[in-house]
Specification:
Number of helices: 10
Helix content: 55-70%
Largest sheet: none
Strand content: under 5%
Radius of gyration: 18 Å
Number of strands: 0
Structural class: mainly alpha
Shape: elongated
Distance between the termini: 28 Å
Length: 216
């Protein structure tokens, strides 16, 4: 699982212009991404500009271009940071000792995803960046990567049945949950409770077609 975190960090780093990541530089980069996240949260990723990022971070436009070639690179780097943070939290919660079975751990992972929609600034709009994915069609969507990370963590800890069909079903369930959670947050910044519960139920219903779900 650490390889997945490393991959997320490498994606993040590859999107940034080459500059030594000393403490001051790292803090400046974080401020730029925080400013971008605030703009995305307020008006959506479609309208973000590098000038808005500079203004929000209290920096010059030249500082933005020192790190990023354009606005798309800003968004991609913000999405990569989202992925890194989400991956770390998902792996942490799946490993928590109080879970008696894989479905309980998955339910906790579902709660983490909801938590990110609610609390991580700009996440509800941009998420892991699939909405702005400019890679070739054969590239693996980042949401698929997140599903794989959770599945493999569950399989490693609980011995979940592994196989192509199980993995495909799990990815489908995860993507369905993500889409329905997004709808729950579309008009309610705290997430519509009924829609969130429906998202949880839908994930379980899809999974039941591919894996034996433990009885409550």
């Amino acid at each position: 699982m650490p390889d997945t975190l490393s991959a997320a960090r490498e994606i993040h780093a590859s999107l940034i212009r080459n500059e030594p990541m000393q403490a001051r530089s790292t803090a400046r980069l974080a401020a730029l991404l925080d400013a971008a996240a605030a703009v995305v949260a307020e008006i959506g990723y479609e309208r973000l500009t590098t000038a808005m990022v500079a203004e929000g971070a209290g920096a010059s436009i030249g500082t933005v271009y020192r790190y990023f070639p354009d606005r798309i690179a800003v968004l991609q780097s913000l999405a990569a940071r989202n992925e890194e943070r989400l991956t770390a939290r998902l792996l942490q919660v799946v490993a928590e000792p109080q879970h008696d079975d894989w479905f309980a751990a998955l339910s906790a992972a579902f709660d983490v995803l909801v938590e990110f929609f609610r609390d991580e600034v700009g996440f509800a709009s941009l998420r892991l960046g699939d909405v702005i994915d400019l890679r070739p069609a054969e590239g693996e969507p980042r949401n698929s990567v997140a599903a794989r990370v959770v599945f493999e963590a569950l399989a490693e800890r609980f011995g979940v049945e592994d196989g192509e069909r199980a993995r495909a079903g799990f990815e489908l369930a995860w993507e369905a949950a993500d889409a329905l959670i997004a709808r729950a947050f579309a008009r309610d910044p705290q997430g519509d409770a009924a829609r969130l519960e429906a998202a949880r139920d839908a994930m379980g219903a899809v999974l039941a077609q591919y894996l034996p779900v433990p009885a409550n």
